[in-house]
């Protein structure tokens, strides 16, 4: 019996659930994967798992497993709280038929559904009270990520919750990713937005209420220093001056702990004609020297809001302990 582990083992990061099949005890120790609520129902009905508390736990966790397997479906449910409530309620009613005498599973699901309603009502109340003005820089939406987006993904989520008053996007010279791409994405999604020049950020923060800045990242190193589109660093400095929270939205794939700090990051320099021309129209003397770095590095101490990852919002100084 020394090899016996917990009778129900759940790994939320891997989205796996397994049970100790009690039908084989005491002669054999065998574990089985639970992939959905049907598997859980069968395991409870056949008494592979028994005991009212264990039945309740397995039922609840099997719903989580099922939701985790279908990301697109889960996103659609999150955007429609009523639909998510009905989904959980349907699964609860089904699982409770497996062993109808055991009361724990019904009580636990009722508690979950009641908490869901309270949370939904609380979120709705906050949405009605708080709309925010957000500034972003460069392009971090579906055009840059082939998906929901990083910084622009955060903005999309806020807008879907009715929490965006206005998104200010910088033009992002010299390649104009903000004016050409981000502005286009914002307009196409009917997100309230205003385009500003790169040199207007200080004036904007001094005259209008900017609640937060959220930008993307091309590399985040071990101490939290972050390389992003040129111009990000100066915006972070302005945020520090005006007391505006500065967030970096970065998938874990952008984290690079092989570099100790931002001074080790190689900064790409782009061709000078990107500054001299727009759509082949010269805007500067051709003889003029140009310095055209594509990125700058924002020190970790200026990332005051935190780094937004798939695992939550993390302070730059906690990156290593969280992910190593």
From TrEMBL:
Marked site: Transition state stabilizer: 138
Gene Ontology terms describing biological process: L-methionine salvage from methylthioadenosine
Keyword Isomerase carried by entry: yes
Domain of life according to the entry: Eukaryota
Active-site residues from the entry: 218
GO CC terms of this entry: cytoplasm; nucleus
InterPro entries: IF-2B-related (IPR000649), IF-M1Pi (IPR005251), IF_2B-like_C (IPR042529), Initiation_fac_2B_a/b/d (IPR011559), M1Pi_N (IPR027363), NagB/RpiA_transferase-like (IPR037171)
Enzyme Commission no: 5.3.1.23
Record's keyword terms, sorted: Amino-acid biosynthesis, Cytoplasm, Isomerase, Methionine biosynthesis, Nucleus
Enzyme class: isomerase
Pathway(s) of this molecule: Amino-acid biosynthesis; L-methionine biosynthesis via salvage pathway; L-methionine from S-methyl-5-thio-alpha-D-ribose 1-phosphate: step 1/6
Subcellular location: Cytoplasm; Nucleus
Gene3D superfamilies attached to this UniProt entry: translation initiation factor eif-2b, domain 1, Translation initiation factor eif-2b, domain 2
Reaction(s) this enzyme catalyzes, per UniProt: 5-(methylsulfanyl)-alpha-D-ribose 1-phosphate = 5-(methylsulfanyl)-D-ribulose 1-phosphate
GO MF terms, alphabetically ordered: S-methyl-5-thioribose-1-phosphate isomerase activity
Family stated for the protein in its record: Belongs to the eIF-2B alpha/beta/delta subunits family. MtnA subfamily.
Biological role stated in the UniProt entry: Catalyzes the interconversion of methylthioribose-1-phosphate (MTR-1-P) into methylthioribulose-1-phosphate (MTRu-1-P).
Name this protein carries in UniProt: Methylthioribose-1-phosphate isomerase
Organism of this sequence: Blomia tropicalis (Mite)
